[in-house]
Write a structure and sequence with these properties.
two-stranded antiparallel ribbon; alpha/beta; globular; nine-stranded mixed β-sheet; 9 helices
């Protein structure tokens, strides 16, 4: 018999492996997973348990220190925003990776966090590092019917939209999973002006080729501000370009909110 736990979205009856709920018995997106694994290793983003536990506070020798400083600031802004929410929240973190962001939110016991990803390596690391009763990790695809419709108060897409080719399908799927008045929050993901897209694609191609992971190219996608026009949305934070960080102009990491009430 498969054990179950009671959560804010109902009983969870999926089998568990090393602390991760398995919504699929077969490997998900194996070509993407292998390309992503290689990119993590070669770009020095394959962190130890000790490093993950401290994120977004990166060790001084982390080659991505400035990037993590930006993520730390994003987290501070988001936690400040959540303080205005007085009621308990059910939150889904899509593309949660090693779980650092979901863990930070779950430290408020008023929130129940559900982390979802297709990369088992990082999910198992998340479950090994973070242990909170209101934090659950799932191996699965957002496009599968894992959770009932209108389950969540909030869905987080933190540094994850670049791994989805069809942004419209992703956002529509998330809206179906939200309660009325629920919110999608897009954080720490590159968004470009439409005039910048081609140059951004060329930079990504050079980056992955130089890194030796050309097989990652089909799985990394570039989205523009125009892609959000079909959805009533608000920019809660809109920085300038990241020239000083990446050595080129174009693109930014905005904070975009889409509210289901506005959409409907």
């Amino acid at each position: 018999m498969i054990p179950f736990i009671e959560t804010g979205v109902g009983e969870i009856k999926f089998p568990q492996e090393n602390g991760v709920f398995l919504t699929r018995s077969q490997p998900l997106l194996p070509d993407f997973v292998e390309a992503y694994r290689q990119e993590r290793i070669k770009s020095h983003r394959n962190y130890s348990h000790a490093q993950v536990k401290e994120l977004p506070n990166a060790f001084a020798y982390n080659v991505h220190l400035r990037e993590w400083d930006m993520r730390a600031n994003s987290l501070k802004r988001f936690l400040k925003y959540l303080k205005r929410k007085k009621e308990p929240l059910l939150i889904l973190d899509v593309g949660c990776g090693n779980g650092w962001f979901a863990d930070k939110l779950a430290r408020n016991q008023q929130y129940e966090l559900f982390g979802l990803d297709v990369f088992m390596d990082e999910l198992q690391q998340a479950a090994a590092v973070f242990h909170q009763p209101n934090l659950h990790f799932f191996y699965g695809d957002i496009f599968d019917q894992i959770f009932p419709q209108q389950s969540f108060d909030m869905i987080i897409l933190n540094d994850s939209i670049s791994y989805f080719e069809d942004l419209y399908k992703l956002l529509y799927t998330c809206l179906d999973l939200l309660k009325m008045g629920g919110e999608i929050h897009i954080l720490d993901s590159p968004v470009y002006k439409s005039s910048e897209l081609e140059a951004a694609r060329e930079r990504s191609q050079k980056y992955f080729e130089d890194l030796g992971v050309k097989n990652m190219l089909p799985f990394f996608h570039h989205h523009s501000t125009d892609d959000f026009l079909a959805f009533p949305h608000t920019y809660l934070y809109k920085p300038g370009g990241l020239k000083s960080l990446f050595g080129h102009s174009g693109g930014s990491w905005p904070w975009i909110r889409i509210v289901k009430d506005e959409y409907v």
